Amino acid sequence: MIRLIASDMDGTLLDPDKNFPPDFFDILDKLEKYNIKFVVASGRSYSALKPLFKERTDKMTFICDNGAFNVVDGKITGVNGLPDNKLKEIISACKKYLPDVHLVLCGMNGTYISEEFNRQSEEELGFYYFTRTVLNDLLDVNDTIFKIAIFDKKDPSENSFPVLNRLFKDSVELQISGSCWMDIMNPGVCKGAGLSILQKELGISRSETMAFGDFYNDISLLEQAEYSYVMENANDDMKKYGKYIAKSNAEYGVTKTISEYLSQLEKQNF
User: How far apart are CA 21 and CA 33, in angstroms?
Assistant: First the structure.
């Protein structure tokens, strides 16, 4: 029996307009009835996820910032902050070698961006970072930073990833998380590691786990689940990382798959 379901948000659970499936909160109620834990596993920060789930937030589990910041039932259970010297080294390298990219520093007390990025990119930032502190120089940040999100219009896989991988591949975790986004965390930080810790704490096995994802930062999450679903809307080279293919996020593939599973349970218990 499935005891835990973990899902990515953007491109997976949320539709192309960033809306929940119409039946999502009803599905949550049904999962609770069967004592199945639903886990949000996102590259987004907790501060950006909380408003979406409103009063349910304190009863849910979140793997945030690709596993660098985790929350269970409203309590922080894990924070993996970048060392200050490494943070400054990465910021300085981006200034020198990647002047056209923009950085978002995700920290314990909020997110931090440059004035230029704040001016230019409300559309991009508004989806993912609702509350932001603007700094004249990101090197001046005074917070525990656990993820650096890089916005790269030139395509991170072709532009920023090769540069930063050459400079830092042995000392940080680099993950491409969107067509214009990549993330930098401490070594070993990923959604799959966060899910593995949670599984051990709850006594839930990989064979009792279902997971959904659509992008490269979801690969480790999918590997932690026997019932792994890649979304139909994912890039073709992602499809090999799932045991199954779910309908696209535009067709609400996550809740349709869960609903089908719950219907099977209901028949068994009839």
Answer: 20
Give the CB-side neighbour count of residue 219, counting CA atoms within 13 A. 13
pLDDT above 70 for 127: no
Q: Tell which phi-psi region holds residue 66, choosing left (phi > 0), alpha (psi between -120 and 50) or beta.
A: left
216 DSSP assignment:
G
Length of the chain: 270
Conformation bin of residue 139: beta by default, left when phi > 0, alpha when psi is -120 to 50:
alpha
Pseudo-torsion of CA 95, 181, 110, 189, nearest 10°?
-100
pLDDT digits (tens, 9 = 90+) for 184-217: 999 999 999 999 999 999 999 999 999 999 999 9
Question: CA angle, corner 14, sides to 13 and 15, nearest 5?
Answer: 120
